[in-house]
Each structure stands twice: as C-alpha cells, then as structure tokens.
Amino acid sequence: MKRIRNGDQTALRMLYDQYGGAVYSVAYRVLGDHPRSEEITQDVFLRVWGNADLWQARKGKLSSWLMTIARNAAIDRVRKDQRRVDVASTPVDDMPERYIEEQDISRHLWQNGRTLRALIAQLPPEQAEPIELAFFGGMTHQDIADTQAIPLGTVKTRIRLGLQKLRAMWEDSQDD
Amino acid sequence: MKFDLTDPCNQLIDIIPAYAIGAADDDEIAFVDAHLADCPEAQRELAAYNDLSDSLLYSVPQQTPPPVVLDRIMRATAPLDAPVRVYQKPFWRQISGIAAGVLLVLLIASNAFWVANQSRPVTNEQHLILNYAGTGQTRQISLNGDPVTPAATLTWGVGSAQDTWVGLFSVERLPALERETYQVWLFLNESDVISAGTFDSAADGTGYLIFETGVPISQFYAIGVTVEPVGGSPAPTTNPVLAGNI
Question: Under 8 Å CB-to-CB from A168, ≥6 apart: which residues?
Fold first, then answer.
C-alpha cells in the first residue's frame, strides 16, 4: 500500500492480481450482474489508487477492507439504481462459480467461506434470509420488516438467533 | 426502540450481532456507539462477530473478473507524459486573443467538414491518396502511449480539394475492446477539443482512422485517444490511453 501511495502502478496491479477476484465476487453477489460488478471493481481499485491512505493496518485485514468497500459500493449502486436487492430471488446456490485459478494467497479464506456458506444453508430459512438481506442487501431491521411485512421484533429475533447459531457452528468448525 | 439504561452492557450483547453485519437501525447504532467503550464483554462479542462478518465476505461464490477490468484500471492510472504538456501549456495561451478567436471561428465553421468515420482497414490506395493526393505537405509524427498502447503514428497532408486536410491515425498494440470503442480527439487547447471519429482495434492490436478537417491539422496542439461508449461521446469521458503533441 505504501508503494501505491507513492504512485507505483505495478503495486496496484499486484494488489489487483491478489484481490481483484475477491472484490469482483462480492460485487457480483450483491448486484447479480457482470457489467455493474465490473464497474464496481474498477471503482474500488481507482478509489484505492486515489486514497491509499484510508487503509490502516491496525484496523483489520486488507482483503476485508477491500471487500467491504466493494460490498458498500455495490449496495449504494443498487440504491442509486432504485432497485431493491432481492437476495432471496437470486439464491446463492444458483450463482455459478466462475473462477479461474490464479495467483491467490487467500485460498484458505475462500475455503473457510465455502464452509460458512454450507453452515448458512443449515440455518432455518427464516433466519438465513434476513441475515443475507442485511449483509448483502444493506437492509436494516426496519427495512426488512417493511419489505417482508414481518413485525420488527420478529426480524430482530430471527437475525440475532440466526447469527448466534451461525457463530456457534462456525467456531465448532474451526475447532475441528 | 426503548433501551434499558440501567444495564446497557447486557442490552448491548443482544444488539451486537446485528450491529456487526450492518442490520442495526440508527437508534441501535447510536446506543452501541454510546456504551460500547464501557462494556468489555460487548467489545469481545463485537470482535467475534466482526470476524464472522469478515468470513461472510468470502462465503460468496468465487468469480473472476474479465481482463477488460484490469485494462481499464491500468489505463486510468497510467502515467501519461504528453497530456501533462497539453494541460500545462495550453495552445491558446501561446497565440494572441484575436488569432485564437479567428481560429475558433474557423473550427466552428469547419464542423461541417468533419466526416463521421468508422473502423476500417486502410488500403494501399488510401495510403497513396493520403500521401500523394495533396501538395506534398505530408507530415508524420509518433505518439507515445502507456505500457499497454506503446505505438501510434499520425500522418497528414493537404487533401485534393486544397481546403481540406486529411489525417491518417494508425496505432499498433492497442487492446481490442469488447463493449466500448476508441475515440480520437484533437485538442486546440485545454478546453477546446474536437472528435476526429471513432475506431476499433482489431484482434492483432492494430487500428486506423482516416478523417478530414477544414482546418490545418498542424493548428491543433495535441491529439489524444480515449475509451468511450460505442458510437462515441460528445467530449472525452475517460483519461487518454494515448496522447501526444502535434
């Protein structure tokens, strides 16, 4: 990141080689189409190029930072396009993995992610769905209650119980 | 929502999971932000759910972006020497106000002469026309691009009608675009730029554009090429991938 801060384009390319796929994958998960996901990916790396100072190592992993920027940018894009994210209508299992093996030091993170995806599938749908709507759709408790016509308290309970269960299963899987 | 202020730390524990994944509403976010510093257990909970949230990012189906995304990023961030000169030394500052006005009028009047061009291979015959149909004033310059687009030339001469100038822009090693097109721009100064037309790069990286103008091409200060939507744009919308002084 220091090299990028100094305007080293080669360093930006290395960053892209390492995390471009991750950024694109998150954008595609939120947006569900390739053209807008390409735009978001481009925007994320141009934002990094112009504001490399924004990343602070003590605040977390670089990959998480980039993917969070991508997720937020994609959610903003959905809002800008005035279309609600309907995560339920684009089931994650229907999204084919289009991944070419490449330089990737994050392989274990992707493996963990696949494990987590399998664990989410084990949650009751009424808990998994609002969690995905919140995380990948940028919806709050109130948004979900409004769009799903469910009492606010019910939404809160489902998300809390679902995440508690997911965390417990996740920690168990890490111990194995 | 009503919060139990007698035991905020206990209540935080309930809100933290939703807070970590971005589901909390504004009042809940404010409540967490106000009390988190005083609740060590809630801080540990938040750290754990933040880890879960980070892992959720990797739970998405893995995708590979098409190569064009990297191309665009590299083009947008490439250091370009020539455009700097364009912007630092505007042509119009080097000539008198009257001359600039006259030239601007000529440019506006010349719009009718601009021919919409499309990508097409340049035949030997067209080369001959360009090089010999004029009055022997053919000139050629080389343009420098970024690492992706290293070679281009601009050749021009006076057309057979004597009041038109014909330009041949040719380029090598310019990546083919899938959903966009290249557009050639002629710069009178920093703010006055005119499209010379659009062209597509072939699979072997070569591209050509022949264009005409009612103003001597040498009157232009610089030439640039940008990536634009198919059909071209009224004005450049991206940074030049190739540029040079005329």
Answer: none
Of B208, B34, B192, nearest to B123 (Cα)?
Answer: B208
User: Minimal Cα–Cα distance from B65 to chain A, Å?
Assistant: 6
CA distances from A130 to A85, B65, B196 (A): 12, 28, 53
pLDDT band (50, 70, 90) for residue A82: low
- Radius of gyration over alpha carbons of chain A, in Å? 17
> Tokens for B195?
């499209």
Residues facing residue B183 across a β-bridge = B198, B226
Which amino acid type is present at position A140?
T
Q: Where are the alpha helices (DSSP H) in A55-151?
A: 62-80, 107-122, 125-137, 141-148
Q: Give B237 to chain A, closest Cα distance, Å.
A: 15
Instruction: Give the tens place of pLDDT for each residue, A3-26.
Output: 887 778 888 888 898 889 999 999
Contact B55 A34 (CB under 8 A): no
ipTM value greater than 0.85: no
Q: Could you say which of B49, B61, B74 has the minimum Cβ distance to residue A163?
A: B49
What confidence tier does B99 reach under pLDDT thresholds 50, 70, 90?
very low
Query: A96 exposed, middle or buried (CB, 10 Å; 0-12, 13-18, 19+)?
Result: exposed
Q: Give the E-state strand segments of chain B in sequence order.
A: 139-145, 151-158, 165-172, 180-187, 193-199, 207-213, 222-229, 242-245
Question: Taking CA atoms, what residue in A is nearest to B24?
Answer: A140
At A45, list the tokens: 């790396």
